[in-house]
Amino acid sequence: MTKAGIFTKLIAASFLLAGAAVAPAAEAGLDLIIRNGTVYDGTGSAPRRADIGIGGGRILFVGAAGDREAKTEIDARGLTVAPGFVDPHSHVLESVTGVEGPFLAPQILAQGITTSSIGADGFRSPDELRTLFAALKAKGSSTNHFCYVGHNGVRKAVMGHEKRAATEAEMDRMKALVREGMAMGCVGLSAGLMYDPGMFSPREEIVALAREVKPFDGTFDSHSRDPVKQFLASELETAEIGIAAGIPAKLGHLKAVGLSNKGKSADLVARIDALRAQGHDIVADIYPYDGAQTNRLANILVFPGQPPIRPSQSLDSVIAALRTTLADPAAKAALRDATNNGYRGGFSWVKAVGYDSIRIVDAPGQPDLVGKYLSLMAEAKGEDPFDTMVDLLLNAKGTIIITAGAMVEEDVQRLLVQPWDMISSDGSYIGKGSVYQAAPHPRSSGSFARVLGHYSRDLKLFPLAEAIRKMTSLPARHLRLYDRGEIAVGKAADIAIFDPAAVADKADYVHPERLAVGMKHVLVGGIAVWRDGAPTGATPGAFIARQPSDR
């Protein structure tokens, strides 16, 4: 072991001991006892008062500890003890290469998340996954990670950004890369059919690639192709691809986006229920917010022939380029077309979600703009929404932030309560080194705590046992991570201990970096990684490969 590794372990041990009752003599193999907690096992069963014994990173007993002794103890009296939460759709760990030092990610630890995905939305090829895994291993991570092999990633590796269907030879190469990813231990194939280059892929291409994961007992997950203009058809396409490939399918970060789709979540629920009644393994994940991607309004612009506006690009430079472009009628027309339709048919946020899905969530110095949709503002003025957007940018008193994917609360709640809909964050890392710096979303810091506090405890949409099931056994079983997601003998000792009366999200669209509250202890492999509002510095996180279903 390197000196750095020894140092990390010493730090982990010191933090584990801090604040814990140390027994004079420990039972052989028993490292930790959690006493007096209200245990929710993750299956949705009623809670029970129980103690938990941990040794070698595994749960050794659940019941009355009696006079058993361990090296350390945690008194969980008055607290909820649950399996560590599994985030099935996250982008937080993708920033590891830009973050200095160990990857501790307080924003996810404060929510009780112990395992997160890499490669959602189809973004990562096997080589890109290996780069991230190497960085996480070298720097150390407080949490675990698993992976999807990404359709967009393998397509770019084989075809670049070609705007056409793949040839037979290209398909063979992509299939080989999918198999390579599955052999690495990925849980399945992910796709991002709204994004370039996935948007140029016919369904048959995705089905053929999805069939390559079947021998590995893999799954399929996808960002829908056209979530606004073809809401039902696009969401059901994910299910249909899974059915055609003979594998389970998950609708990624499910939502009814845009004013035009208000209420249509009921139709989608009925369709998914019907497919499940026929025996098809169709599930979804959801984050508990009424807005999707957050961004600067200026970043919605697409300048023809130029790279997309970078998160780090100064707002002044974007506005200066806009003014120059508007001075030339032909250039203005080209800017309008590229922003509305994508440059040469490529990606644009307006093309993807439409103006009736773009809502202002922050406008410094102009509070009257907050909550307004660009489409309704344009309608009130009797003008084109592009012109409304340009006028807002030229007369802004500060950086206007929007959500490119607004939805109504009624639809959020209807989807949230479905028993087949698990909780996710779709979050990105917030802090120095993040690859998503322009306008972070509060879901990154608050999703799981928001469900536990706001939706379960306060609104009583579902009992706490069901909220925890949606965060633990439901995603773990779907993802073939069978030794996670439950408190049971033999399972990994990934555990979240929180105050059910205090757990809450604090992040919002103006302050997305605010950490959730109420999480007292978080253990990964039996090692404390979070205590009393801060990371302990321990980095026991590791890559978790897909596991055999008979385990």
TrEMBL record:
- Tell me the InterPro entries matching this sequence: Amidohydro_3, D-aminoacylase_insert_dom_sf, Metal-dep_hydrolase_composite, Metal_Hydrolase, Metallo-dep_Hydrolases_sf
Point out the coiled-coil segments of this chain.
none
Gene3D superfamilies named in the record: D-aminoacylase. Domain 3, Metal-dependent hydrolases, Urease, subunit C, domain 1
What are the record keywords, sorted? Signal
Q: Which Pfam families match?
A: Amidohydro_3
Q: Which residues form the signal peptide?
A: 1-25
Give all residue intervals belonging to the Amidohydrolase domain: 371-526
What's this protein's name?
A: Amidohydrolase family protein
